[in-house]
Request: fold
Amino acid sequence: MMKKFFILSAICALMCSCGSQKKVEGNTADLYGEWIIEKAMGLSTEGGEKQAFIKFAPDGKMNGNASVNSFFGGYELKGDTLKLGNVGMTRMMGPSMDIEDAVVKALGESVTIKVNKKSASVLDKNGKIVMELKKK
Reply:
């Protein structure tokens, strides 16, 4: 249990660093709104303590829930580039930490998001899908 908490804390610290460049393909207006995170790192998020989601607002703010903990921060859209910055996260333990760990890892590894109106795929630097999203 302590090992998982340490790993989660390390990943959160990585996410909270200066931010990383993200690439958006497709109509960026389709990105705005709330997305249900259906899978993260190949793991279904069904059955988590809370429904995992991420929400992008037109004012450059984003927030979500990774199953147990909430995350929040800002983002910028410039052309096809999305930059996440000042990402913070609550730090509680809960019954669905496996889902939580997968969502946090996927957020940390995401580079490209392909938006198709009602669904989206988030890919890592190697083009592997790390999250599957469905528009709420």
Remarks:
- The first strand starts at residue 20 and ends at 25.
- Confidence is low (pLDDT under 50) at residues 13-20.
